[in-house]
From TrEMBL, chains A, B:
<dbReference type="Pfam" id="PF07944">
    <property type="entry name" value="Beta-AFase-like_GH127_cat"/>
</dbReference>
<dbReference type="InterPro" id="IPR012878">
    <property type="entry name" value="Beta-AFase-like_GH127_cat"/>
</dbReference>
<dbReference type="GO" id="GO:0005975">
    <property type="term" value="P:carbohydrate metabolic process"/>
</dbReference>
<feature type="domain" description="Non-reducing end beta-L-arabinofuranosidase-like GH127 middle">
    <location>
        <begin position="429"/>
        <end position="520"/>
    </location>
</feature>
<dbReference type="InterPro" id="IPR049049">
    <property type="entry name" value="Beta-AFase-like_GH127_C"/>
</dbReference>
<dbReference type="InterPro" id="IPR049174">
    <property type="entry name" value="Beta-AFase-like"/>
</dbReference>
<dbReference type="InterPro" id="IPR008928">
    <property type="entry name" value="6-hairpin_glycosidase_sf"/>
</dbReference>
<dbReference type="Pfam" id="PF20737">
    <property type="entry name" value="Glyco_hydro127C"/>
</dbReference>
<protein>
    <recommendedName>
        <fullName>Glycoside hydrolase family 127 protein</fullName>
    </recommendedName>
</protein>
<feature type="domain" description="Non-reducing end beta-L-arabinofuranosidase-like GH127 catalytic">
    <location>
        <begin position="27"/>
        <end position="418"/>
    </location>
</feature>
<feature type="domain" description="Non-reducing end beta-L-arabinofuranosidase-like GH127 C-terminal">
    <location>
        <begin position="523"/>
        <end position="639"/>
    </location>
</feature>
<feature type="region of interest" description="Disordered">
    <location>
        <begin position="1"/>
        <end position="22"/>
    </location>
</feature>
<dbReference type="InterPro" id="IPR049046">
    <property type="entry name" value="Beta-AFase-like_GH127_middle"/>
</dbReference>
<dbReference type="Pfam" id="PF20736">
    <property type="entry name" value="Glyco_hydro127M"/>
</dbReference>
């Protein structure tokens, strides 16, 4: 049973410095609404589903056989499947903190024991290398994933330690970390791993244990990176992010998930060591990436080849890669920036990625997931079968994947979601994510209990009710999202307009007081920067934090929808969308639909082909709903007629 | 010394049936002009350069060491480098036919002896498998490339046999083919290779030797394919084209070069066996591919991931993969369709791919090549150094590549180019490619000598002069390209307008007679089909067979050029382009150039950002010239203002 009094209880990130201090996940209970439904689905379904699949595919058995020295059959799965076992363990650890009387703790205990059983006496642990392949240990740091796997093991251990528990899992994590320190810690060692991840994990382990040696090793890995010690990947020297030092690079590049995990680790280290110049440099990289290399839905990494960032403004909607893990890594990085800087733009990004990528990736059944997140689907595809773990990643939601980083990443995010909601500082409390919740924590020396009432994102009203407070002054702040074109805050009869950023109210809060944020969620048109050539001459429709799309279920070839004027009328359809989430708001608009029945022999001609068009009403739906009504075509960016440059 | 009287002399494809019979390469001598310059460059520079690189990288040494059983060091290069040695041999063989007194024959002799020396007694030949890895022979048909390599060896042997020579190379090719028949020929064998290539090679070998067994084996490989006997590639089941039978597929898909080689092989087999239904089916696949999956420059295969075709109309210009080998394979397939059907649309495609892909891929130095052929370069990149063979493929022209299929493919195409120019049938001669040439061949029972005078593509006049003919009636036909908006043919004072297709004139031709084709090469605007979303709201500029581009050398970030109206004025700049090919014609137009100096924090907004524009004249250059003036930005499709859907 975890100890609910642990000072870092349930915290996904617990910096010792920085502008803001996260409110422990244990102090935040999500209440009925958009995110609580998903957090519950994660606990009830995603976690058992993940445990089932890591068993089915032999990924847990690999530990059993490593422990037993059983070489009879070839090991199953890719060489980094250990990481998915660890991420499942991490998710269970967060879930055990959140619901200590639920089944997660017991499920985790067995997994932890299994993991620990495969560890070698010196702390080495890997079911691909090690044991019978002992001679190959650490011979392929570029693409062997050994330290990457340690990183996820350590993150799982940190999650468990932050629940106040010590068990086989935490013992394995500590032993692996100590083994890494012993093996890679020498000052003249130049080695790094091809996949960043251990950096953030080591800093977090230092935070929870107070042991400097883990922080030191993280710093060494960060300093060593960027000096071309790893082999070049065929995709290009930037793939492993080892070709140029972090401080020489001004925008994220290379493999997107690697770049984002590296950002998180570097930021953690910079915060702990007081390297404010690096914090600022990393924030500059982040801002430039948001400005030029991020999709409307918050996805990062536009290229399938190398799962990598493209050039500035290279953001094709149809073959957007925008890996689910990239969104999750982006949320993790954004949260670290929020804590370090206190600035609201990072939580703005997290909100965008959460509602339009993370929510999209999870099927309402809890048993299917997206790996890649396109913004245009021209070619309807059926979902893979219930027993399929496809090799390919560009499928509709699949039960699992041969490379299955995304489902386990979703699981650990949802289980720790409450830790990404609110912060405190010396003067008060800040609410970053607008979600129904009960928050009971210490604020400026007093115990405060708040309830956040909202049906966000469907409604733009967020009411923060003070349930408990002793009347001494403190400041309550709430993020006014960047998307809000108008917003008001009401406190005790006082109403004022606010602009995006943090809306703040300082007073002697008493039980029954309320701060109400009213955001204008009128559907809006969004015009992409003309430098994003792939969506030239189009607009998107958004409402609140949600990106909308034109989806046509039924499996037929794509009809081309065009908006007949540059300022089309958008009408909310509050009854929801047929067959879907009762709360969902659709947006009706008039589109001109072209059904080209002819296919010219050559698609480049003196003029566009004549085409018949019909004008009719189409109800756009939130992007996260796409693909739930069977094979469909979908597009976020709709061509408009009559635009001017 | 090759025998210049061989009936298939120099012929890259020699079907025994079909509508048209190719005029042997030996009967066509290119004269000074666009293609002759490149053919000479190939002989003088590309071939020695290729020989140098296959030595430098150890790809020839692999044969030496396989022959000697030398295991001392690890073999260098990817597991299909044998194929590039064979393609170099094939190119030398064609070149030895073309220039029997040149150095190609001698260079080839040494290479042929080396190749033969590594062959095992039963005909098996592979420097990766075999010998010390004998137990692994044919254990990885999906991705081992053994039969693919045989295919290229056999093609080299065919080239040599069609020069009338028999030597070590032809002995090795015949032994490998017989080994393949013995190993894979059983009726109940179901095996196929992951990379098609051997099919066309076996049919061609049957054509040149008259041995049915090679044709039979090709037919077996074709019939076996499409029944899921190969492992699925991670990219998807269509990658190896083994998931669905050829006859069930109505458009090219999967790996582009694999698909095009398979088309060539299937068409060769269908022609030889009289399977007209299959010929028609393949032509339908081809037509659909041209209509929906081909770039303006003739490139095929839009995706970097899997080097594969995308969905219909998925043709992004910036990250166009459009591999050079795909263009070459397309020319090879198109020529086979030309011969089988006699229809001119196939040579139209070949012309487009030759002028805009093949010519683009070859640097004027003859020592650098493009692998990938984009239509938009946003990010200027320097060329790799003179000693670099990069892993990555999306570089500017490089001296060689780690996977270097494209340079050797260019070499074999240029060396055999004369074989793709003209055909005969019972009634006359047809000129398919409009190139300066001397053609001396048998037409309708008489010896005919023609000279084609033209400075095409710079000038649209193509004059065919009859040098020798005995006055009996026959029909002279010339392709009027599909791009021509107006064209006239003059024969003996008679002038008539002609439309795209074959312009034909039947008469008793006598020495001194002339047929003159006059094509209108006025620069023209080309509008992409609106279904190609990635170029929505843009136009391209073409002139004759050439696609033009806006290129800005200098290495600076891209400025955005917009055409200020839907029908911009295009003016020829006949003085050529500064520093480039004297014959080149530029096209001046007025563009509005936007230099966004600000980078908004988020590139999606209620309206496009304000930007300063300057109007000025820009000279567009033929696409094949891009990148020759140093690192540059480039785009083929230019946004236009004021277009209507």
């Amino acid at each position: 049973m975890p100890d609910p009094s642990h000072p870092q209880r349930g915290l996904p990130v617990a910096p010792s410095r920085g502008r803001l201090t996260p409110v422990p996940a244990g102090d935040v209970v999500l209440e009925d609404g958009f995110w609580r439904a998903r957090q519950d689905l994660n606990a009830s379904t995603v976690l058992p589903h993940a445990l089932d699949w890591i068993d089915r595919l032999g990924w847990t058995d690999a530990f059993r056989r490593a422990a037993a020295g059983d070489d009879a059959r070839p090991r199953q799965g890719k060489l980094f499947t250990d990481a998915d076992v660890y991420k499942t363990a991490e998710a269970l650890a967060w879930e055990a903190s959140r619901t200590p009387y639920g089944p997660a703790g017991e499920r985790l205990a067995g997994l932890g024991t299994l993991i620990r059983s495969a560890q070698e006496p010196d702390g080495y642990l890997n079911t691909w290398f090690g044991h019978r392949h002992a001679a190959q240990k650490y011979t392929n740091l570029s693409h062997g994933f050994e330290l990457y796997c340690y990183g996820h093991l350590i993150q799982a251990g940190v999650a468990r330690l932050r629940g106040g528990a010590e068990d086989d899992l935490t013992a394995a994590a500590l032993a692996a970390a100590d083994h890494a320190v012993a093996t890679f810690g020498a000052d003249d060692d130049t080695r790094v791993d091809g996949h960043p991840e251990i950096e953030a994990a080591l800093v977090e382990l230092a935070r929870v244990t107070g042991r400097e040696r883990y922080l030191d090793l993280a710093g060494k890995f960060l300093a060593r990176r960027g000096h071309d010690t790893l082999e070049h990947h065929a995709i290009g020297p930037e793939y492993y992010l080892d070709d140029r030092p972090l401080r020489d690079v001004d925008v994220l590049r290379g493999h997107a998930v690697r770049a984002l995990y590296l950002t998180a680790g570097a930021l953690d280290h910079a915060v702990e060591t007081g390297d404010d110049a690096l914090v600022e440099h990393l924030a500059g990289q982040w801002d430039r990436t948001i400005a030029t290399r991020t999709y409307l839905h918050g996805g990062m990494g536009s290229r399938h080849l190398g799962e990598s960032f493209g050039n500035d403004y290279e953001l094709p909607p149809e073959r957007a890669y925008a890996e689910t893990c990239g969104a999750i890594a982006g949320v993790m990085a954004a949260w670290r920036f929020t804590l370090a800087t206190g600035e609201p733009r990072f939580a703005d990004h997290a909100e965008r990625a959460l509602f339009n990528m993370v929510a999209t990736a999870l099927h309402p059944s809890g048993q299917r997931f997206l790996y890649v997140n396109p913004l245009h689907v021209r070619h309807p595809l059926p979902e893979p079968g219930d027993d399929e773990a496809p090799f390919r990643k560009d499928t509709p939601r699949a039960p699992w994947f041969w490379v299955s980083c995304c489902p386990t990443n979703l699981a650990r995010l949802f289980a720790s979601f409450s830790g990404y909601v609110a912060t405190t500082d010396a003067g008060g409390l800040q609410l970053h994510q607008l979600t129904a919740a009960r928050i009971a924590t210490d604020v400026a020396g007093q115990r405060v209990v708040l309830r956040v009432h909202t049906s966000y994102p469907w409604d733009g009203t967020v009411e923060i009710e003070v349930v408990e407070a002793d009347g001494r002054d403190w400041e309550l702040a709430v993020r006014v999202p960047a998307w809000a074109r108008s917003a008001r805050v009401e406190v005790g009869g006082d109403v004022r307009s606010v602009v995006p950023g943090m809306a703040r109210a300082r007073r002697g809060w008493r039980p029954g007081d309320r701060l109400t944020l009213r955001l204008d969620t009128t559907p809006r048109l969004t015009v992409p920067d003309p430098r994003i050539d792939a969506v030239h001459g189009t607009v998107a429709v958004e409402r609140g934090p949600l990106v909308y799309c034109a989806e046509v279920p039924g499996g037929a070839a794509e009809a081309r929808h065009t908006l007949p004027g540059p300022r089309p009328k958008l009408t909310e359809v509050p009854a929801g969308v047929d067959g879907l989430d009762a709360g969902a708001v659709g947006i009706a608009t008039t589109v001109r639909t072209t059904t080209e029945t002819t296919v010219p022999a050559w698609p480049y001609a003196p003029a566009a082909p004549e085409a018949e068009t019909t004008e009719h009403e189409l109800t756009l739906v939130p992007l996260y709903l796409w693909g739930l009504r069977g094979p469909s075509t979908m597009r976020v960016f709709l061509p408009v007629e009559g635009t001017e440059e």
